[in-house]
Write the structure tokens for this entry.
Amino acid sequence: MLGIAQECSDLPNLAQRFYSFFLLKFTRKMGNHVKQICGIVFLSLSPTMKGMKKRIIIGLVFSLGIALGLFLMANFCDELLGSWLAKSRTEAAFPSYSVVIRGGIITKAKPERLYLRATDLHIEISFKKPGGLLGDPVFMEIDNLPRDFKTTYKGNMPQVQSRGEASLALVFPPTKRAFKTLISIDPPSSKETFTFWVAGDNRSRLDLLETLLKKAKGEKPLFIVLGGDLVAHGLSWQYKRLLEVLDESPVPVFAVPGNHDLEFCGRRNFTRYLAPDHYCFTYGNSIFAVLDTNHKDKGQTQWLDRILSNPSYVHRFVFVHKPPFDPRPGKKHCMHRKAFVQKLLEVLSKHKVDILFCSHIHSYIQTSYKGTKIIITGGLGAHRKKPIRPFHYVRVIVGPKGIKTQMVPLKPSPTY
């Protein structure tokens, strides 16, 4: 690589510095194949070519090609590969044990340690150990649990290593005896009146999210729903940084997939670290459903129609990232697949959904469609759009007299 950079020695000093810096700094971060390609291109830009103009033109074309490739990868990778990457892990098996979780996902599994994340207020875990092998103790950590959760065990009872506000750590001691344990985790008894919060579009700005979670320690909502675009570009390190913040939450946080969350095949990271791309949970006589409206329907509206048809539900809430339409005159920052939009609106109207919560538009807007209230809330840190609203979240209070919603402003960190 140094030899290639030295071939630019007779170029003007500024151009030489640019070529050397780009080659030595940028290519170190790329894979070996990309390094070789860059080397070949930069060799072609050596002084053997006639004229600086030709070198500049080829350099610009090469740069534009890279930019276009990154753009296409970011925006269409999930469209092409999403169906292969959409499965969250709910089962794991090793010679020493097997586990199945309902109402959650397995974020990491090793022979001696399990990490689980709840995606429901009611969680069931089946843990089986075959006989004959003594093995090592197995540690199980469960995050994103409801406040004051209740735990029941059937079968061999594990040791409780620690219990936090929204987490539980268990240890299954080594034994040669085969056993099966069923673990059920539930919220406290359902209340007639409860509160939950909705916010969205923080991207990778985490100061307002941290502020929101600090407020939750005092006000204690039942849970928080984040309406998508929780990271900037769907990259693994961005999700891990996000999880460091979410792990400090005193209440469960349920995520909706946003278009930025799915960039660069980010669906794999979303379904691995946070939740399936569509799922539901219940509390008392209310049901809450999460959909992915960023790309194709893929049977989601049929699934939504089925789960909302239960007549025992008094209140129905649906959460998406992209709204079915943009209520602002002349704007189209919304879903673009007309068939998906039509089916979704039909299901919302058919089951008289109380509120459809959306994000994607970085503002606060209320509208409605055939009796269903639509709230667009995208004020958790991304650049604001018209109509300009303060950074905010939405407080929702569900009670016997109906549903109340309120936009609550959030103050950004002065050091941000």
Observations:
- The first strand starts at residue 91 and ends at 94.
